[in-house]
Amino acid sequence: MSSKSDRTEKATPKRRSEARGKGQVARSHDVNSTVGLLAGFAALAIGGPHMLVQLEGVVVRGLAQAGDTRLATAAGLSSLAWWAMRSFAGAVAPVVIAAALAGLLANIAQVRLKLTLSAMKPNFSKLNPGTGLKRLFGPSGLVETGKAVAKLTVVGGTAFLTVWPKLPRLGALTGIPPASLLSQLGGQVISIVTRVGAMLLVLALLDWLWQRHRLEKTLRMTKAEVKQEARQTDVAPEVRGAIRRKQFQQARRRMLAEIPTADVVVVNPTHFAVALRYDGTKPAPELVAKGADHIAAAIRAAAQEHGVPIVSDPPLARAVYRQVEIGSMIPEELFAAVAEVLAYVYRIAGRRTHARRPARAAIARA
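-> structure tokens emitted (366 positions)
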């Protein structure tokens, strides 16, 4: 087993992809919570007056109905309670939805949208008390403790520095009308939230950078692992292209080598060329070569070189080229057209060997 000091190489794209498939990504929960908190406060600041009116209406109506003796029953009180809860939920719903949606978008922005079931599988090792204590008092636990202390210090210090200079002014608010009091306090709260939110965003960004650093450190590989992965990885695209070209050239040479054994080459007359063979050993004629454009020209040249008859039949050449693969027999719907061409070649050429006379007779009868 390799030690941590041996893991000096950065993770390869394959290693990163495998880790992402297992749910190992750089994600900061502080970013999600901070963005959600600020979005909730923003929704509260924008829709606060309307929300206050709604809640005031709920309170007024609730108190009015509470004094109604006709509702002094179990059913009446239950109905009143459900109405109050629905009204309260409707009033605060925009704030809750804004916070939840912002937190979700922040999470997607960090890890991108990818569903994986690996992270959802139960891991019973997390139930081990020894492992839990090791995480709690290990380096990660100390970092989390330091983050909590830092957030508490920053939030408390920022709030204190914001409120302390304004304490005399806040003390002078005693006795003013409630509407003015809410307006003054709302301004102070917005000021505190803005400054605290800015500090929380800074801490969240630092935490995300730390999570990314820790992930990179976890995914580091040894030189042996990098070499082994390189051997197992597919070759470069240029090499794959060269291999495909070589395979195509070899297949083309093998195909052209079969031209001398063909009975006829049907052409289109220049765009397509198909070479057919029928020796009586198979139920139907066989396609031994086909090609378009420059390959068709090579097939025609090979046929001329070896004395294989060339017949121009554009519909048949196109049909065979599109429907039949090399080494396959002609389909039934093309039997009549191919038999006619072969019979014509056999009659005109008059060069069939004794071994192929049964085949010629069979084609002529077809």
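Confidence is low (pLDDT under 50) at residues 351-366.
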